[in-house]
């Protein structure tokens, strides 16, 4: 596969990626063909295959772009933005919610692909590790308030509790009051670490 060096080639590749992102979000991976992607991007199918070996390679590139964008949202705060640990937890939950609002239909498709394709599953796991490491770095200034013998596991539990609750809020049809659910999540985390 060629790597575009000129502006025109880069634009062509970007058009293919953008078209694929929209179609995968709208019709799903299995419901979208390479021909449809090329057509939506306004390029010949030969151009598609000069940049991507197949549809799966393109999906992986789209997925990497997607994770880059949601990571920018999830970790778009600095230490200067946070006054105390309460602010940190509140900010973590609300930024996770904001990240899940970024193309939720594509996120659903990723969840489907994760269950059916080992390469996608491994890629998702790798991105989750990166997100968890970023979370730990942001927690670093508050580590003295944690009284756990197993800090790594405790932070893993907190991180995944936030992620899973946000998934429920963003993607399920639950009738639970979402504002109350977030408040209870914050209370639960604070009690867990005994702040």
Short characterization:
The protein is mostly helical.
Q: What radius of gyration results from the CA coordinates?
A: 20 Å
User: Could you give the count of β-strands?
Assistant: 0
Categorize the overall geometry. Answer: elongated
CATH superfamily of the largest domain: Tetracycline Repressor, domain 2
Under CATH, the topology of the largest domain can be stated as Tetracycline Repressor, domain 2
- Tell me the strand percentage band: under 5%
Q: Poorly predicted ranges (pLDDT <50, ≥5 residues)? A: none
N→C terminal distance: 53 Å
What CATH architecture of the largest domain do you see? Answer: Orthogonal Bundle
Tell me the series of helices and strands, N- to C-terminal.
HHHHHHHHH
Number of helices: 9
Class inferred from helices and paired strands: mainly alpha
* Overall number of domains: 2
How is the biggest beta sheet arranged? none
Overall mean confidence score, pLDDT: 87
Helix content: over 70%
Keywords: DNA-binding
GO molecular function: DNA binding
Give an account of the 3D structure.
The protein has 195 residues and is mostly helical. The protein has two domains: 53 residues, Arc Repressor Mutant, subunit A (Orthogonal Bundle), CATH 1.10.10; 137 residues, Tetracycline Repressor, domain 2, CATH 1.10.357.10. It is 74% helix and 0% strand. It has nine helices and no strands. Helix 1 crosses helix 4 and helix 8 packs antiparallel against helix 9. The longest helix has 22 residues. The mean pLDDT is 87.
